[in-house]
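Hey, can you fold this?
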Amino acid sequence: MQPVKSLTAYRPYWAKRFGVSPFLPTSRAEMEALGWDECDVVLVTGDAYIDHPSFGMALIGRLLEAQGFRVGIIAQPDWTSADDFRRLGKPKLYFGITAGNMDSMVNRYTADRKIRSDDAYTPDAAPNKRPDHAVTVYAQRAREAFKDVPVVIGGIEASLRRIAHYDYWSDTVRRSVLADSKADLLLFGNAERALVELTHRLAKGVPVERIRDLRGTAFMAPPGWLPDESWAELDETTAQEVGADGTVIKFQPRVPRTQTVLRLPAYEQVKNDPVRYAHASRVFHLESNPGNARALVQRHGNRDVWLNPPPIPLTTAEMDHIYGLPYARAPHPSYGDARIPAWEMIRFSINIMRGCFGGCTFCSITEHEGRIIQSRSEDSILHEIEEIRDKTPGFTGVISDLGGPTANMYRMACKDAKIEAACRRLSCVYPDICENMGTDHAPLISLYRKARRIPGVKRILIGSGLRYDLAVRSPEYVQELVSHHVGGYLKIAPEHTETGPLSKMMKPGMGTYDKFKAMFERASKAAGKEQYLIPYFIAAHPGTTDTDMLELALWLKRNGFRLDQVQTFLPTPLAIATGMWHTGKNPLKRVSAKSEDVAVVRGERQRKLQKAFLRYHDPRNWPLLREALKAMGRADLIGNGKKHLVPAWQPEGTGMSTCARGPKKSAPAGRCATPAKPLRKTRRP
């Protein structure tokens, strides 16, 4: 693999003489105003162009600009022909393709496979401005526009579809996006290192097909291809395994791990064999630590998809460099007064770190950003707060978030670098917090206090989800958070109350939630504030039975929660839980035809039922819940008392009319004689 080189150690490309662009150009007229006759790199994205580090194309574009390259952006192109991909002319080095900040299928469809009516990353939230499987479509159109220009794909869609993967929307196992898009190279994860090195090599005239040693990259290779004779290939069945208790079953390869490639079951095998798919998912996720991950290869027809090990995490200095680049911190002027919801959401927020070591199986953050936390320095973050204060229109003195994938993993790391490099655990906090994981919240407390003291800042809120199993280890942090940074409500994500689903999610039990809730309420009372926790829960997650959802509904009722927004499990590409959902097997343990089966909620009716349990208070759900409770032998929960889950009566116009004893003869057809009583008022945070 290529040795690690700092992002700031490269000699700038000659075009640096053109200086910094107010906005990266999106038209020939803007290029000409900058004195450019061509772009070195043209970036194509499914999102509107917002020049802010929270948006991938702006971050990548500004990083390449700082290296001296001329970068243009084609945002949300017309994909029905190649014409719009010629807008900026022929790029000198390559096309960089991304679907945007979200997978295009997640962005465009709901968990019920219905087309969404809006798109938060589009001006005025207009829908249908990007195609399905946008990376593949954009890459094909770019190739049509200029056949001899290399095509490099990246971003979250490419990253999470880099091997054969289950696609929920087509209900099939799809090939790697590399095979479908016919791109020259795929960059996965946090791709800054690979991107900068790749661009400089291409600028020196190295052909893209010869660039095969960059971490965090994937490419198509001939069958059996190896970098040189010193490498060895291992069959996937000999992969090092980890027991359910985290114990490593040792395996000594014939050559060093750095010169070992591990062969996964082929696409043609995992496509039709759920057990092999689940096994491939397990092996893939065990090879996620950049300190010990091996290269992976997977046959697709008569070619192989080759994945180099994940990228080495960025240092604090490199993170500061990236987030300190001269962003305009605004949407491109061509959008005029159009409202872009994603921009409105983050315009006053700051990303302080990357990565997550939680390992929740339904989440793909670890697969994309890694489990090693990459944090910015205090000075960098405080400077960005001042930038928002001084340059962002509409700032009223309130910072909406200091966070990232989680609110409180800032500067947390393994206590021993050697242990971290050798670790094969999928989570540092499940089933318990690892004794080697540092959970000190002092750096975050210091950051909060300094941020509050900046002139012109009235308040700092925390909008990112809180990892409460970490927070309970620091009463001082909870006190600081609750006293100064909660705007009445704090969102946390227990996800469920029952051990069955929680074990498949790799989430802590409710005992930890109860401990945090008590700390939160004490701190709120001490601060003289009336504040509430907003818990998030998931319905229909693998491993969840109807009985589990009933118990969760009863917990919600006992605790006085009436949830407005609830989430049904969405199988996103490459997540461990998606492997469970597709195969009915548990990749958290060694997989075989006789290994543990996982309960999976597939049918539309059962998914609706589990979601209905989360909204037990909605009259529209009562007919479905009554029917289910009777079938489950729990008709005792139907009635009009405080201990009942749903009433025996049904308000008019709220679903199918249902009566406990049937309508009286004098009752009008279609409605119950029992009066439609108002719902009991339950305090809802």
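Oh, and this one too while you're at it.
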Amino acid sequence: MLKNELSKSSSPYLLQHKNNPVHWLEWSDETLQLAKDQNKCLLISVGYSACHWCHVMAHECFEDDEVAALMNKHFINIKIDREERPDIDQIYMDAAQILTGRGGWPLNAFALPDGRPFYAGTYFPSYNWIKVLQNIAQAYKEQPETLINTASRLTDSIKSVEIFETEDTPKKLSEIELTNSYKSWYAHIDFEKGGVDKASKFPMPVVWESLLEYYAVYKDTQAIKAIDITLSEMLKGGIYDWVGGGFSRYSVDENWFAPHFEKMLYDNAQLVSLYADTFKITQNSNYKKCIKETINFLNSDLKHGNFGYYSALDADSEGEEGLFYTWTFQELKQILNAEEFELNSIFFGLKPHGNWENQRNILAQKVSLKTLADKFQVNVEQIQKDLKKIKAKLNAERNKREKPGLDNKLITAHNAMMVKGFVKAYQALSNETYKDWAVELMQNLIEHSINEDYSVNRLMDKPKPQGFLDDYAFLIEALIYSYEISFEVKYLELAENLTQYSLNNFYDEHQQLFYYTEKSTQLIARKIEFSDNVIPSSNAVMAENLWRLGHLVSNENYIEKAKKMLLKVKPLYKKFSLYFARWHKLNIAILKGQIEVAVTGPKSTQHSKKLQKYYWPYCNFCGGLNENLSQLQHKVNPNQDQIFICQNKTCSNPLTNIKEGIAMLKKQYQ
């Protein structure tokens, strides 16, 4: 007799469901064979541990004995952690989007015993869920051929979603087309509150990183305005944790006010990078503060000793969404003195009966520091000191509360993003500690995620599941950044080995793109991830890796592959331009020509550090005291510090002064 098997799982999300009366099983060949043997449809439920609506549906449906009895009688029930098995999630998410035009989590799909889906949706309240279960069970019993036909057509559609027609491939890239594509984004940007469209609002760091590069190259002031508004307004909103630092996943409104309170490693790692790059240009002190506070949050709440960073914090604690992060009027009156309470109430627009749900208040800035200073007849510096004291009191009190649940997966791709975040923070703020943390985390990834044959594991602490394209893409990117701040060539050598493994096992010569899964995959479809979402597309990251690594190690094959990949997806710009933001960055680099900065001599790393404080798009740094790259040949004098600026295989005369190097680099972007 079947029973719930999830207590044997290592996934925090699956373990949340180990006591459900549903006979949950994990995805495996044995589970699929069981469905075939019993001639039962698969019910595939996908989510993640920090997902609020996953918890709601679990409580309403999967913890209910009556609902569970229906599921157990008619289906083989499979639970999937989308972060552990994004390959499975992609297939059934495509099914939901094809059938309903929308996706999200929880994702619930019904499939034939061989895995081919015929129905999928997201959240279902219990009364709807029961109807769905009954109707599908009846249809499979009385009209199985109808479901089989639907599954065949839907599976064909899923397989064809990411197949490109080569005749549409352009022969060359146009600068006018590129700049017009960037300008088309403005119709989707909220220039009052920042962000893309109105609500719900996701940070989408990939969009702003790309737009920042566009601004730096083409000097379009609308671009920096959009970025600055977005980054500033997010810091004022409830999406940013004013007390403890770090960002929630998204806000449900257009003002960044009310978030879904889950905090993800991948969001915060990317946002550290984004705020650091933007700080290089704007020198906005609020961005500097945000970088420090977000890193402090990551180290205090998501760090696994000296090993890596956990995946996420839940939105809920004590069974209630946002309870850990919000406050009643009465709580604040007890914690703060009268003047602090008044200042806090005005600054955050707090209300006696709450500015949110259940008489609770979200801390989101409502007035400027100048307005607050005028109100209390003090200067802004004094207000900042007062707010710092209030923050310390609230943080001490909040730490006494029951903390939100922790998803303790150590995902390779997301930790690699954190390496980049540390590197960017180090570059922007010249904080050597951030460099040390980048090197330490990179070393842990090398030791724990990469195998002897250069295959990669999805999780840092477990051999299964095997890695997906995003794990390889972000690891290679992290290795390139690690080289640029250290000039240790071992990072580039490893990046080359991982790239070659990816080409051998993921790349498709006909499509000229990478599949998301290895060629050994047994799923009903191999997907090609080419468009950006809250995380940049793995193909776009791989294409940029090939471009940058190709220049660093002088591999023309890599460079040509990157160009072909961009040309392959470029026809999709017109319709989905915003969701190809990362590709736009590569487009700029190819049009302009990669800049190579070689910094050599006894003080090469110190001089490189000073140069990297500035924002240089499509620019690689290399150097050191050894001629261990072809482009360093004849550029190293062990007794002389030199800077060479190269583009299109032409280099400047050696410069010996940092100021001259900065001035010459600035000319490259005029």
